[in-house]
Amino acid sequence: MARPYTRILLKLSGESLMGTKAYGIDSDRLGAYADEIIAVAESGVQVAVVIGGGNIYRGMEAEGAIDRVQGDHMGMLATMINSLALQSALEAKGYKTRLMSAIKMDTIAEPFIRRRAVRHLEKGRIVIFGAGTGNPYFTTDTAASLRAIEIEADVILKGTRVDGIYTADPEKDPAAVRYERITFTEVYDKGLNVMDLTAFTLCNENKLPIIVFDMNTPGNLRKVVAGERVGTLVEF
CA torsion angle for 209, 169, 58, 100 (degrees, to 10)? Predict the structure, then answer.
């Protein structure tokens, strides 16, 4: 398999782990994702992963007695639940992993230390980054951008249930057209929703390309890493 990328960061939403469920984690979907990730790692690509927590709790939806900061901390814990689940699924299939947390959780995860994370990747381990950035008011999209920049990843691969970036929401507008390639400037100008603005700007300022693709189609992750035209590439 051709490998235009040496080191990638895969961003998954927490909602993607629900599969056909209304909430929580679908074991079949989790296992399928683990297979896809392992296939890429076994090809020699260094793989890091960031997962959201929206299938369990979203801090920005905190209401009533829960203030935004507390809610965001609860959301960070939700990402750790998903990260532990993915770690378990990967290791059950015989692959070595490391889970690193932005919040100190010594009994279940290593603290995030950039040099240590890079070393794990160099040794062929799949590294999962949990607990977001460790700070409230920042999304896991921003955490993914930040960690990708810190570990000097070649690209962020944003796995979604949609096969790329469209002129409009394809689930609402049947006339929407998918972009194969688009620049950061065009995304800004057209007001397209790729990532939250903080995360997107971080990628733009640090010249980090983004590929948005359908993670639920088997083999798509491998195709993206091999350089095939899958999804939408956001470039400069």
Answer: -20
Residue 2 has pLDDT above 50, yes or no: no
Average pLDDT, the chain: 93
DSSP state letters, 132-181: TTSSTT--HHHHHHHHHHHTT-SEEEEEESSSSEESS-TTT-TT--EESE
Residues β-bridged to residue 37: none
Per-residue pLDDT tens over the stretch 14-45: 999 998 888 899 999 999 999 999 999 999 99
By the 8 A CB rule, do 209 and 156 touch? yes
Q: Which residue in 157, 150, 154 sits closest to 195, CA to CA? A: 157
pLDDT average, residue stretch 46-63: 84
pLDDT(58) > 80 = no
Please list the alpha-helical segments (H only) found in 43-168.
68-92, 114-122, 140-150
Confidence check: pLDDT of 195 > 50: yes
What residue spans define the domains of the chain?
7-235
Alpha-carbon gap, residue 56 to 209, rounded angstroms: 29
What fold is seen in the domain 7-235? Carbamate kinase (3.40.1160)
